[in-house]
Amino acid sequence: MNCIKQEKPILYTYFRSSSAARVRIALNYKEIEYEARPVNILLGEQWSEEYMSLNPCATVPSMIIDGSTICQSIAILEYLEETFPHKPLLPKDPVQRATVRAIVDAICSGIQPLQNLSFLQTLPENERANYACKIIAKGLNVVEKMLKKSAGKFCVGDEVTFADCCLIPQLYNAYRYGVDISKLPTIRAIEVRANELPAFRAAHWTQQQDCPDTLRQQQK
């Protein structure tokens, strides 16, 4: 496919969105320069007429790239993999590729939607944190069992893949809601290795331009 590439992709993001963080990691890992445009979810900016004309789902991330707009984090990851094949995030082996996608699905379909702000807001406020903690803990226990069969240095073998791009941001939410991951040794080991890589460190929510200074200071 021949694409006319613009100077920089534009990523609509929110500092605490685990979905947006997946894409930030991939962009950093592939060394793709991009422009970040924050969308404040708490203020409802995703519901603005301007943003919904870009992304009718009213979610982040959205990306403008090569003259097109792509919504949904995994679709963006797949597009980046196809158009920027250097530093691949999918293995060549078909079984390993399927394994990566299975782990991605376990995180992105089995955990993340059930602890999303849009869902938690349907619950009584005093129940939200406890519910999110239980959902994330249950889901990560499933992922831990999957990783025991597939992991090397990272989720699938010894190279970073989509699975790592999805796992590490999910851990941001785990810590936020007080999930104990000490009994998930495979996940914990992968997290330590991932955090040694600049691509992951730069994608962390505390490093984003729209992260409030008060929250950033609390993490130090």
Automatic annotation (TrEMBL):
<dbReference type="InterPro" id="IPR040079">
    <property type="entry name" value="Glutathione_S-Trfase"/>
</dbReference>
<dbReference type="GO" id="GO:0004364">
    <property type="term" value="F:glutathione transferase activity"/>
</dbReference>
<dbReference type="GO" id="GO:0006559">
    <property type="term" value="P:L-phenylalanine catabolic process"/>
</dbReference>
<feature type="domain" description="GST N-terminal">
    <location>
        <begin position="7"/>
        <end position="88"/>
    </location>
</feature>
<dbReference type="InterPro" id="IPR010987">
    <property type="entry name" value="Glutathione-S-Trfase_C-like"/>
</dbReference>
<dbReference type="GO" id="GO:0016034">
    <property type="term" value="F:maleylacetoacetate isomerase activity"/>
</dbReference>
<protein>
    <recommendedName>
        <fullName>Maleylacetoacetate isomerase</fullName>
    </recommendedName>
</protein>
<dbReference type="Pfam" id="PF02798">
    <property type="entry name" value="GST_N"/>
</dbReference>
<dbReference type="InterPro" id="IPR034333">
    <property type="entry name" value="GST_Zeta_N"/>
</dbReference>
<dbReference type="GO" id="GO:0006749">
    <property type="term" value="P:glutathione metabolic process"/>
</dbReference>
<dbReference type="GO" id="GO:0005739">
    <property type="term" value="C:mitochondrion"/>
</dbReference>
<comment type="similarity">
    <text>Belongs to the GST superfamily. Zeta family.</text>
</comment>
<dbReference type="InterPro" id="IPR036282">
    <property type="entry name" value="Glutathione-S-Trfase_C_sf"/>
</dbReference>
<dbReference type="InterPro" id="IPR036249">
    <property type="entry name" value="Thioredoxin-like_sf"/>
</dbReference>
<dbReference type="InterPro" id="IPR005955">
    <property type="entry name" value="GST_Zeta"/>
</dbReference>
<feature type="domain" description="GST C-terminal">
    <location>
        <begin position="93"/>
        <end position="213"/>
    </location>
</feature>
<dbReference type="InterPro" id="IPR034330">
    <property type="entry name" value="GST_Zeta_C"/>
</dbReference>
<dbReference type="Pfam" id="PF13410">
    <property type="entry name" value="GST_C_2"/>
</dbReference>
<dbReference type="InterPro" id="IPR004045">
    <property type="entry name" value="Glutathione_S-Trfase_N"/>
</dbReference>
